[in-house]
Structure formats: structure tokens, C-alpha cells
């Protein structure tokens, strides 16, 4: 009896001892019963951040890599894989040649004939610069064309390019010695020949420039005339006629004070010349106009 009672007491005591442990464990599981959250013994591990994606305006710069030749079946950019030594495709047009580089243009007689036609039109209008360009263009597309050669020679003579005109008149006779313009070429060669001999004589060349200048002056082309008389005076500075004609050209251009000086120079060089009265009259008119 005593033994059974002792066992019962011990069992009750053991139950009472185990009761606080159960309450403590249950209290730790629920944080609602705690006054605050106890700090952790070690800091939490950092959360990894996602990698930034580059914006469209800021392209990423990959590390340089060795160039790799494209494998079979892989596509490559035409810009990066262009072969500049490759032959052109059959369907591509031939490259355009450049006249300034001295390359030959393809033979095109139809275009040459059109250039000759337009060149003759400009020649009739006395637009010699445009005619010169057309005839030269015709000879690029059809070298040794007789009509283009003759038209070029005529135009060059009009522009006083006598040496070139002389050569092209002769070239026409070599191409077509009995052609429709053969007689004109022979006459032009005889006409130009003596002037070519003048080139080595400054005084004779000055006389030739005066002749050409007087032609421009008669057409009231004062600036072209002035250029010719200026060339004559460079070759023969004390030529009285060149000074007088120069004065007339400058007066036509309304450059009155320089014109007065050239009139006076003519009078000084040739006091009894045939144009002295004209020069004095022109000087009086200029002084009345400009007050000198």
C-alpha cells in the first residue's frame, strides 16, 4: 500500500515537472505572447540583385573577340563580309568613266552626232564656249569624227586659239582630204599660218592682239577688247595705238579715270598722232564728268 502510494506520488510529481517545459515551448512558437522580437544572432544573407539591362541608347560593349570566319550555313553581314576584290556581277552596268582622268568613254556614234548637231547650233548663235564643249564631247564618244573635228577647228579659230585650230584643220584633211569642208580647211591653214609665226615676235604679237581687240571693240564688247589691249601692252608697253584703244575700252566700261590716264599716255607717246584730237576731247569730257 505504501509502495503503491509512493509510486502514485512520484508519478504526479513527474507530471508537474514536465508541465512548465510544455508551456515554454508553446510560448516560443507564438510571438504574439512576446513583448518584442529578439534580435537574430547573425545578419541575414543579402538578397542577390538582378543584372541591369542596358537601355536602347546605351548599347552594351562586349569584350573584343578574335574574328571568326563564318561556318557553313551561318549568315554574315554584307557590310562586314564584303569582298572588294570580287568581280562585278554580270547584270551590273559598266563603271562610268571620267573625262578628267583621261579614261576612254564607250564608242557611241549616235551621241557624237547629237553633240555635233548641238555644237553647230551654238556656233551659229556665236556661243563659242558652249560649241567648244559640245565638239570636244563628240570626239570623246567618236574619235577622229570629221564633222566634229571641223566644227572644233572653226570654234577654236573664233576664240583665237589659233595653234589648236590650225592643228584641227590639218587633222580634218588627214581624215577626209576631199571632204565637203576640205577647201575651207585649206584656206584656214593659209590664213592662220602667218599668225603662228608671229608668236615669237612680241611686237608682232601685240599688233595681232590689237587687231583682235579692235574687232571686239567694234562689237561693243568692251571687256573682251580690254583684255586684248592689255595683253598687247604687256608685250609692247609703249605702243600708242594699244594705249588709245585701251582708253576707249575703259571708257566703254565706265572706268573713266583709268581711261583718262591712257588717253593722256597716248598723247605723250604720239603728240601728233591721228587720234590726238579725239583723245583730248575724251579727256575734257571725262574731267567734266568726274571733276578732275
Structure description:
The structure is a single chain. The radius of gyration is 53 Å and the shape is elongated. Helix 2 packs antiparallel against helix 3 and helix 4 runs antiparallel to helix 5. The protein is mostly helical and 292 residues long. About 24% of the residues have low confidence. Among the domains are: 91 residues, Tetratricopeptide repeat domain (Serine Threonine Protein Phosphatase 5, Tetratricopeptide repeat, Alpha Horseshoe); 90 residues, Serine Threonine Protein Phosphatase 5, Tetratricopeptide repeat (Alpha Horseshoe), CATH 1.25.40. 60% of the residues lie in helices and 0% in strands. The protein has 11 helices and no strands.
Amino acid at each position: 500500500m505504501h509502495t503503491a502510494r509512493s509510486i502514485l506520488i512520484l508519478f504526479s510529481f513527474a507530471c508537474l515537472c514536465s508541465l512548465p517545459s510544455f508551456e515554454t515551448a508553446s510560448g516560443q512558437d507564438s510571438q504574439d505572447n512576446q513583448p518584442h522580437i529578439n534580435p537574430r544572432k547573425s545578419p541575414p544573407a543579402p538578397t542577390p540583385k538582378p543584372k541591369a539591362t542596358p537601355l536602347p541608347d546605351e548599347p552594351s560593349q562586349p569584350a573584343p573577340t578574335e574574328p571568326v570566319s563564318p561556318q557553313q550555313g551561318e549568315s554574315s553581314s554584307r557590310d562586314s563580309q564584303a569582298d572588294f576584290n570580287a568581280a562585278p556581277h554580270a547584270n551590273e552596268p559598266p563603271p562610268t568613266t571620267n573625262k578628267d582622268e583621261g579614261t576612254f568613254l564607250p564608242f557611241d556614234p549616235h551621241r557624237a552626232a547629237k553633240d555635233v548637231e548641238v555644237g553647230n547650233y551654238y556656233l551659229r548663235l556665236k556661243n563659242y564656249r558652249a560649241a567648244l564643249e559640245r565638239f570636244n564631247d563628240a570626239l570623246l564618244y567618236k574619235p577622229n569624227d570629221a564633222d566634229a573635228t571641223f566644227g572644233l577647228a572653226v570654234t577654236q579659230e573664233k576664240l583665237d586659239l589659233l595653234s589648236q585650230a590650225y592643228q584641227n584643220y590639218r587633222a580634218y584633211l588627214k581624215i577626209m582630204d576631199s571632204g565637203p569642208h576640205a577647201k575651207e580647211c585649206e584656206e584656214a591653214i593659209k590664213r592662220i599660218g602667218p599668225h603662228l609665226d608671229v608668236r615669237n615676235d612680241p611686237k608682232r604679237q601685240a599688233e595681232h592682239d590689237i587687231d583682235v581687240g579692235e574687232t571686239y571693240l567694234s562689237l561693243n564688247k568692251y571687256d573682251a577688247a580690254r583684255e586684248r589691249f592689255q595683253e598687247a601692252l604687256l608685250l609692247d608697253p609703249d605702243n600708242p595705238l594699244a594705249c588709245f584703244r585701251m582708253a576707249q575700252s575703259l571708257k566703254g566700261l565706265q572706268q573713266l579715270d583709268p581711261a583718262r590716264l591712257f588717253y593722256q599716255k597716248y598723247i605723250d607717246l604720239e603728240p601728233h598722232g591721228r587720234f590726238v584730237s579725239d583723245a583730248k576731247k575724251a579727256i575734257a569730257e571725262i574731267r567734266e564728268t568726274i571733276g578732275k
